[in-house]
Specification:
Chain lengths: 174, 548
């Protein structure tokens, strides 16, 4: 639910000395992203993407750094970051399994695949395995309904999933 | 470059192509690619070398051929032979394919029947290049009349002449609502401003829809040309394509296409040596369905949370960064170049009275031929589901077809003979939507289907207005209760009342249309709700009464 702001003011914010948005990344964003936008705030989404790409997720401290960098209020950056499903406000595993939960996949038996993954990895959707290897997520239609059920592992699309081939897919990941 | 010079280039490319005796096309759109069709293409090339046919065969990686469920698909045009299509081709089959090029003999086991209604009944405008050209090769697009319309328009036509063709064509927006494109562009053209924007809405998020993805992956230049024509017609200066981050392949191909089109001066400053300048950039979505709504999309490009705002003012008056903006769907824009090339009247001669042209549908669910089809507006649902779609698998019986995703509805058997266009679907209680068609057989429970879509709307609601935020939650709760067999007649009455309230008082389309799946299942399958509530409460003949 996009309107639930997941991070609240009552939480203690973990910080570290070293910035997430370091000088190198700043220079890169300044060169490649900022010139394509009429004002700095408009670059919020791609900047969030860039930091997430480097760090793997978006710690609260990074949101503050991004706000300083773009000249926005930290609350504005958090407002944007919490709205979109793509942004990770907690660490994620090395592999994120996105299993489609939309209607075609539902009709074609995605539930059995989900149960299989849950049992195999011993996690619920939204959770990460203890070794930090897998995160399991539900996702809306991936536009491959013709070959449902399907899912993404990071950016790789898998279609016509069965209880057997999901086993193989997971086992093949290092 | 003048139109004549472009024509010469195209002719040169066509002649060069015709001088190659054999052509092999391998589908590398997302579905086939996930079955490793890129490796297959490489292997076919290697095997052709083995049989000494590599020099006189061109192997292309092409876009979606439509029948994704039988992928990977490969088409072979060997010298003097009729083209043959092969299905479910694996890397192991590569030697056979190469051999067939050399010998001219078909690989019988793999042949896919292209005389079947699935292929024969289609009419392609939007998908005319899909499965034919290499998306990453701009020359392939040019050889198939690409950029011809743009070059002719900017050097020989006035902007209002281009507008007139679009208006005459009767083209209506393919993004859902069916708003006349000519009218939208007229509004933009009339609003004075030095800066105007054209946005391509590629945020395709309706569950069950994958037309836009296929178009972007298969023929990206068509979208760029459509946007440039829109810009010329309306006086726009800059374009953005807002595309879902979940479509990595489409993004990659769009980036390549923009780079090549700019290099060849089909985009950029002083296009083709004229005074017209227009550039296009990509903006990525971040996983929020509501961002497909035009005002939310604008907020998202501006770097804010993607929440809709009330209209008016319409984007054509005050859009991106306060400037006049036109937002058009991918498929809408894909129709523009052919309309300008062949004339509005030609387009208006296809389709029905009020819905012109063709429509691309994504067939999914309990249907034999899942995949992508393009048919003239007005074809009946029966022809689509049973002739083209090949009917229901596993000997099951047809029950309903869902169109329009979470804003649409479920149509039962008695509507199968209805011709599909914007107006007929609306009358029947569904909508065209973006073109997803999900077929359900007798094993599907319609209350579950309604609950499913309500859950979708609930979780995608942006929360800005109360009827949608709270209403979808409450309707979902009620549907849950009914589906679990714990519902009462009071719950059903409450549900129907909420449908009214949410539809009438929500701010944007997401909330306004969220009751549609409930309403249409109540209209056609009310007995299923009643059976779940309590057998005793069923008024006699309730089922038939509703069905009539
Ligand atoms: C919740 C919601 C989601 C939408 N999603 C899309 C979408 O993914 N793609 C699209 O083209 N239009 C979508 N629309 C419709 C757009 O608001 C807009 O009407 C459309 O892009 C206009 O283009 P057209 O005139 O070419 O159809 C959506 C509307 C709503 C209310
Ligand atoms: S109807 Fe729903 S999605 Fe649309 S603005 Fe209101 S809360 Fe947001
Ligand atoms: S419903 Fe799963 S990919 Fe469309
Ligand atoms: S993706 Fe290959 S046929 Fe559709």
């Amino acid at each position: 639910m996009a309107w639930i702001t997941k991070n609240s003011g009552t939480m203690a914010i973990e910080t570290r000395e070293e910035p997430y948005l370091d000088d190198e990344l700043k220079a890169e964003i300044e060169a490649n992203i900022i010139p394509r936008y009429p004002d700095r705030r408009a670059a919020t989404l791609p900047t969030l993407h860039a930091v997430q790409h480097k760090v793997g997720w978006l710690p609260t401290q990074a949101l503050k750094e991004i706000a300083d960098f773009l000249g926005s209020a930290p609350s504005e950056v958090m407002d944007t970051a919490t709205f979109y499903e793509e942004y990770w406000l907690k660490p994620k595993g090395k592999y994120v399994i996105w299993l489609c939960q939309s209607i075609s996949c539902e009709l074609m038996g995605r539930d059995t695949i989900m149960s299989k993954i849950k049992a195999k990895l011993n996690i619920e959707p939204g959770e990460t395995t203890e070794d930090g290897k897998f995160t399991l997520m539900n996702v809306e239609c991936l536009g491959s309904c013709g070959t449902a059920p399907c899912g993404l592992v990071n950016e790789k699309l898998h279609e016509n999933m069965t209880v057997d081939n999901i086993d193989q897919i997971l086992d093949s990941l290092e | 470059m003048t139109p004549d010079e472009l024509m010469d280039v195209a002719q040169g490319l066509q002649e060069k192509d015709a001088s190659i005796p054999n052509h092999v096309r391998v589908c590398t759109a997302a579905s086939c690619l996930s079955l490793k069709s890129d490796e297959l293409a490489k292997q076919i090339k290697a095997e052709l070398k083995e049989v000494g046919k590599d020099k006189d065969t061109k192997v292309r990686c092409v876009g979606c051929m439509g029948l994704c469920s039988a992928g990977p698909l490969v088409s072979v045009e060997a010298e003097d032979q009729k083209p043959v299509m092969y299905q479910k081709v694996t890397v192991e089959n590569a030697p056979q394919i190469a051999e067939s090029v050399a010998s001219g003999k078909k690989v019988k086991d793999l042949v896919c029947d292209t005389d079947s209604p699935f292929f024969a009944r289609q009419q392609k405008i939007v998908l005319e290049n899909s499965g034919i050209i290499d998306a990453d090769d701009i020359n392939d697009y040019i050889a198939n009349d690409g950029y011809q319309a743009l070059m002719t328009a900017i050097s020989e036509m006035q902007p209002n002449e281009v507008l007139d063709e679009i208006t005459k064509s009767g083209l209506r927006g393919r993004g859902g609502a069916g708003f006349p494109t000519g009218l939208k562009w007229n509004m933009l053209a009339k609003t004075p401003s030095d800066t105007k924007y054209i946005i391509c809405n590629a945020d395709e998020g309706d569950p069950g829809a994958f037309m836009d993805r296929a178009i972007l992956e298969s023929d990206p230049h068509r979208i760029l040309e459509g946007m440039a024509l829109a810009a010329y017609a309306t006086g726009a200066t800059e374009g953005f394509i807002y595309v879902r981050a979940e479509y990595p392949l489409a993004i990659k191909r769009l980036k390549t296409a923009i780079r090549l089109a700019t290099k060849n001066n089909f985009l950029g400053s002083n296009i083709g040596g004229t005074k017209f300048s227009f550039s296009i950039d990509i903006r990525l979505g971040a996983g929020a369905f509501v961002c497909g709504e035009e005002t939310a999309l604008i907020a998202s490009i501006e770097g804010k949370r993607g929440q809709p705002r009330p209209r008016p003012p319409f984007p054509a008056e005050k859009g991106l960064w306060g400037q006049p903006t036109s937002i058009n769907n991918v498929e809408t824009l894909a129709n523009v170049a052919p309309i300008v090339r062949k004339g509005g009247e030609w387009f208006a001669s296809i389709g029905t009275n009020k819905s012109k042209g063709t429509k691309v549908f994504a067939l999914a669910g309990k249907i034999n031929n899942t995949g992508l089809i393009e048919v003239p507006m007005g074809l009946s649902l029966r022809e689509i589901v049973f002739d083209i779609g090949g009917g229901i698998p596993d000997g099951q019986e047809f029950k309903a077809v869902q169109t329009g995703g979470p804003s649409g509805g479920c149509l039962p058997e008695e509507h199968l003979d209805m011709g599909v266009d914007y107006d007929s679907l609306r009358t029947a209680g569904s909508i065209m939507g973006s073109g997803g068609m999900i077929v359900m057989d007798k094993t599907s429970n319609m209350v579950d289907v309604a609950r499913f879509f309500m859950e979708f709307c609930m979780s995608e609601s942006c929360g800005k207005c109360i009827p949608c935020r709270v209403g979808t939650y409450q309707m979902h709760e009620l549907l849950n209760r009914i589906a679990e067999g714990e519902g009462t007649m009071e719950d059903l009455a409450k549900l129907e009342e909420l449908c009214e309230v949410v539809a009438n008082t929500s701010l944007c389309g997401l909330g306004q249309t969220s009751p549609n799946p409930v309403r249409s299942t109540l209209r056609y399958f009310r007995h299923e709700y009643l059976e779940l509530i309590d057998g005793k409460h069923i008024p006699a003949g309730a089922g038939q009464e509703v069905a009539s």
